[in-house]
Amino acid sequence: MCCHILHVARDVLLSFVTCTAFIVCGMTASSAPPVTEGLRHEWDADSTGQSKAISQWISGSGRKIRAEQPNSDLQPKRVMIGDKSVLRFDGDNDVFRIVGLNETLKHATIFVVAAPHSNQGDFRGLVSANGKNQRDYESGWNIDLGPGPSNRVNFINIEGKGFGGAFNVLSFSGSQSGTEGPESLPLGELFAFRLTIDPQNKLVSTALNGVTKGTRPFTPSDLKMDELTLGARFYTNGPGEHQVRSPFHGDLACILIYDRVLSETETPQIDRYLAEKYLSLNPLLKSTLPKSINSSVPLVHVENPRPVQMLVPGFDVKEIPVTLTNVNNVKYRPDGKLVTLCYNGDIHILSDEDGDGLEDKAELFCHCATRLPQRSRSDRCFERKGVNDR
Fold first, then answer.
1. I need a surface site. Which of 55, 155, 289, 299 has the fewest CB within 10 A?
2. Can you tell me the distance from the alpha carbon of 189 to that of 209, in angstroms, rounded to the nearest whole number?
3. Is 282 left (phi over 0), alpha (psi -120 to 50) or beta?
4. Are the beta carbons of 151 and 171 closer than 8 angstroms?
5. What is the value of pTM for the model shown?
6. Domains and CATH numbers, the chain
7. In terms of DSSP bridges, do strands 338-342 and 84-90 run parallel, antiparallel, or are they unpaired?
8. CA distance 33 to 61
9. What is the pLDDT of residues 190-230, one digit of tens each?
10. Cβ atoms within 10 A of the Cβ of 289, count?
């Protein structure tokens, strides 16, 4: 192509260069968030270059902050989805850390575009912020997938200083409310999550794919952001140094952190921008996922389940009209009477009074009214000594 350009007329060449520059500038402008005021951090997977293993992720907010990972074993992989990129974290140890930021947020609007591939539980982290040598949930904030394992995205946990304690924004009750719930999304599908921290209204609010979700009270606090963790959490419950924990298994496409509460006209602009740029990739994303994600079939709850489900054939289960507590042994006597042994030692004899084949009466056969007395250590020692003497 260079040889052809060298042989064109000067005015044509200038026209070609001008047109090319216009196209490049147009693409750059359209790929930037439509709201830039207060944009403290913009982590876009498209900014990671062409290499497959990513050693650094540079913020595109104009400050050019580098999230570096020199250890090749801990580097996420860049995966192309059409003409866009995502960073694929393995769920074992892939993570980016940024230290020395020395930032504080009083209010914030945070967007995350992610596609979890699995959730093994233990608060798998999408992104978190913390004060130096402090837990993220006590000094800053975090967004994760909640405490328990799941085969769908059915728990998105938000917590931080001033809004402590795990809370699922996809399920709400009382003052911590949302539009509907509970809700779940399939694994391997990009979603756009929004977290708004509003000290003026003393409220933390959320949205998923542009739809309002759970809210919770907020005690206005200084949210430390000395350090950022992308693709994991940072804390230690108990003694010892705080460290990276709960690595995320899945794709991260974009993280936007604003140091203010976006207006009601600004948030829809960002929601549309993220939907057009990233959520539209979901049909193409499926072809890049492991077969275990595409072929997995979620468990389905049985309608009107039996009280007891036998796992081998040849049994029929019927519930008898007798209420007893702490029953842990059931057996038929040779004469056909049903005997129950309770955890507290009580024994009942069950009989069929109306002749329909089901026991409907329970009579107490033995009541364990007494308990073995607790003996002191000196009593046990004395007894042991007497045995040895014999």
1. 299
2. 12
3. alpha
4. no
5. 0.70
6. 31-294 (2.60.120.200), 327-366 (no CATH)
7. unpaired
8. 10
9. 999 999 999 999 999 999 999 999 999 999 999 999 999 99
10. 19
